[in-house]
Amino acid sequence: MKVEALKYRTVFNSGGHAALEVGIMSDKRWYFSQIPSGQSAGEREAKVFSVPEVQSVWKKINLQAEGRKFKNLAEFDDFILRLDGTERKTVLGGNVLLGLSLAFARALADGKRMELWEILREEFFGKVRGVEYPVIYANLIEGGVHAQNNLDIQEYLVLAQTGPNPIATVGELIAFYETLGEYLANKAKLRPLPIGSESGYNLIWRNNEEPITALAKIIKATNLPFRIGLDVAASEFYEDGAYRFEGRKKTTLNLRNIYAKYFKKYPGLISLEDPFGENNRDGFREIMKNSEGRLVVGDDLTTTNPKEIERCAREKLISGVIIKANQIGTLSETCLAIETAHRNGLKCIISHRGQETEDVFLMHIARAANAYGVKIGAPGRERILKYNELLRLYP
Ligand code: PEP
Ligand code: MG
């Protein structure tokens, strides 16, 4: 496929900040991508270039790529990765590389009259067959840096297993979100309820456990087959060798005991993401030994890096992994990260970012790879775009 022209522009993301849109022209048509960004980003993520910074590297990209032909996405990604030449994408920017990779993949797919997910499956998941319906990770109660409240834990997620009738599951999730909202509005005597970055409720609580109790209570009352997950995002409250949790300093062991208490009290709590800081490998190792089948998930720990995922799997630090394409930089590397995770028996949860755009590419990655889960926020506002793409791709 020939790259006939390239361009970029500013769009605004769900946080009201400038985000990057990239366009690639092929066969006289433009194909676009928009790139999200993290609010609680891991320290080993690919470098993000601000839109004005993109200007300084765009000329180089344009000069090198315009008019060139590539036989597939892997060849194109390889080309832009060599142009950058760094692990962390510090020369061209991880968001710029992903923008290019994704726009190229869309052009390639359209040229072959295929969906984006079909191109990804063909190129990177040759052995994957059929469809596996994902678990939706819906962030309904927000804390940490995604909210303006007193919760240290960043995300209280409801886990909903979809099946051959995903409309029914999404409908149940929406009803659950409303029922929970009604319950919380009555409890807090507050209407309308404030919401956080991902459209989950953003309230003041007695402690970090109370939202789990609320979710467990509504699950029981509605009798829906939902489970619970937490994204602790613990790197965000780790400082000077200790965790600052509920206003006190906690050691790794203190936190482990808190999680053990949650596990005992809430059997529906089956997924725990980033329970310790991104450099606290011993914390992960120890909690994995006592996880009893629950998923221990890496996000800031692994940053969608195939080498890191391989290492964490080998050291038995995690049983699941968050996949965010913009943590690493290109779709080829993202798909390699998933393949590495699957080869090592890890479950993959393809995730949005705290600040999202209208782009729904994450759902195509999930569909291509038959991923275990998709993490897409609360079923409201701008996040609903991802839900609707799920309904389109998982009929
Ligand atoms: C997360 O930590 O899983 C998340 C979605 O947040 P962010 O995009 O802000 O890193
Ligand atoms: Mg996370």
How would you sum up this structure, described in words?
- This protein has 395 residues and is α/β, with parallel strands linked by helices.
- The chain has 2 domains: 5-113, Enolase-like, N-terminal domain (Enolase-like, domain 1), CATH 3.30.390.10; 135-393, Enolase-like C-terminal domain (TIM Barrel).
- The protein is 40% helix and 18% strand.
- The chain contains 13 helices and 14 strands.
- It has helices spanning 51-65, 73-84, 94-111, 116-124, 166-188, 210-222, 252-265, 281-289, 306-314, 325-328, 331-343, 361-369, 384-393; strands spanning 5-12, 18-26, 29-34, 135-142, 155-161, 227-231, 238-239, 242-245, 248-250, 269-273, 295-298, 320-323, 347-351, 373-375.
- The strands form 3 sheets. The protein has an 8-stranded mixed barrel, surrounded by 5 helices. A 3-stranded antiparallel sheet has the order 1-2-3, covered by helices on one side. A 3-stranded antiparallel sheet has the order 7-8-9.
- α2 packs antiparallel against α3 (94-111), α3 packs across α4 (116-124) and α9 packs parallel to α11 (331-343).
- The longest helix has 23 residues, at 166-188.
- The protein is globular.
- The model has no long low-confidence stretch (mean pLDDT 97).
